């Protein structure tokens, strides 16, 4: 009897949140529909007879993947260069992102401990660093690569610099947000007892955020590998530049081999991330 009574109460009292959910869904459709029209997105084109025929011919050229000894030797070299560009660019970005994150993180501010408000000088410095990080991440790495290719010429250096600048803005912002969201007790206790900002970071905020910081850094390294491939299409070296050449020569087998390498690189980065998270 009690179970039946509870069932009747549920039927008589529907979810009180449903009007809000329906309203939000309708508002989302009203906002997204004009954007969909403005983007001229027409998925029906994918199922057009000519598009399907072109897709079939394009995919047929991918089989079998290129596997000659000379091509595989070139593929290994370009893959290594792609990983090197991503790793060097990420390392360069860390040199700027870590100090910027320490400066931007308000939790590490000593001047706020007394009154809860930072001194004017400290607040101005933090705001200036925030604007710099916004500037760096607002320009996509592909645009940075185009600029550096025009300045220093073709080659991996343009890709390393592009990743370094763009990812410095991304990492600095996210690092600061992760440190801000960590447990403040240890950090505040260290600062109140006279420790410096670096000590409070190393022994207060960092231990509580190490796993999340490491996971995001490895994820950004994975993104840097994909980004270095894309930047190769504008002359920044690596697998992307070779793929651009193969696509222009309509060498589908070579393109399919490179695509398989892309998948393996991302899978390896994901496995490396899992391994590091277990160690931390």
Description:
α8 (156-180) runs antiparallel to α10 (197-231) and α10 runs antiparallel to α12 (252-279). The model has no long low-confidence stretch (mean pLDDT 79). The chain has 280 residues and is mostly helical. It has helices spanning 2-12, 18-38, 49-60, 69-104, 112-115, 120-138, 141-152, 156-180, 184-192, 197-231, 239-248, 252-279. The protein starts with a helix and ends with a helix. The longest helix is centred in the first third of the chain and has 36 residues, at 69-104. The radius of gyration is 26 Å and the shape is globular. The chain has 12 helices and no strands. Helices cover 79% and strands 0% of the residues.
- Continuous helix count: 12
Helicity range = over 70%
Topology pattern, helix = H, strand = E: HHHHHHHHHHHH
Q: Give the CA-based shape.
A: globular
Counting DSSP E segments of at least 2 residues, the number of strands comes to 0
Please tell me the overall pLDDT: 79
* Class of secondary structure makeup: mainly alpha
> Largest beta sheet, briefly?
none
Low-confidence stretches: none
Would you spell out the secondary-structure blueprint of this structure?
Layout: H1 2-12, H2 18-38, H3 49-60, H4 69-104, H5 112-115, H6 120-138, H7 141-152, H8 156-180, H9 184-192, H10 197-231, H11 239-248, H12 252-279
Helix pairs in contact: 4-6, 4-8, 4-10, 6-8, 7-8, 8-10, 9-10, 10-12, 11-12
């Amino acid at each position: 009897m009690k179970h039946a009574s509870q069932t009747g109460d549920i039927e008589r009292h529907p979810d009180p949140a449903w009007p809000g959910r329906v309203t939000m869904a309708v508002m989302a459709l009203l906002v997204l529909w004009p954007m969909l029209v403005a983007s001229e997105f027409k998925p029906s084109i994918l199922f057009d007879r000519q598009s399907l025929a072109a897709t079939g011919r394009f995919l047929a050229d991918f089989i079998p993947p290129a596997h000659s000894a000379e091509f595989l030797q070139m593929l290994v070299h370009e893959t290594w260069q792609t990983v090197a560009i991503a790793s060097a660019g990420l390392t360069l970005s860390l040199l700027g992102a870590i100090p910027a994150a320490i400066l931007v993180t308000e939790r590490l501010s000593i001047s706020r401990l007394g009154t809860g408000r930072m001194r004017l000088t400290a607040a101005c410095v933090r705001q200036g660093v925030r604007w710099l990080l916004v500037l760096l991440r607002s320009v996509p790495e592909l645009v940075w690569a185009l600029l550096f290719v025009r300045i220093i010429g073709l080659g991996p250096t343009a890709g390393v610099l592009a990743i370094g600048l763009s990812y410095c803005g991304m990492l600095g912002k996210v690092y600061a947000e992760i440190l801000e969201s960590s447990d403040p007790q240890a950090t505040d206790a260290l600062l109140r007892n006279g420790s410096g900002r670096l000590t409070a970071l190393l022994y207060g905020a960092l231990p509580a955020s190490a796993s999340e910081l490491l996971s995001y850094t490895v994820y950004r390294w994975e993104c840097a590998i994909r980004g270095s491939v894309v930047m190769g299409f504008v002359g920044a070296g690596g697998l992307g530049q070779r793929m651009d050449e193969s696509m222009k020569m309509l060498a589908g087998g070579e393109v399919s081999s490179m695509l398989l390498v892309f998948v393996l690189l991302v899978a390896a980065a994901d496995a490396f991330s899992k391994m590091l998270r277990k160690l931390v």
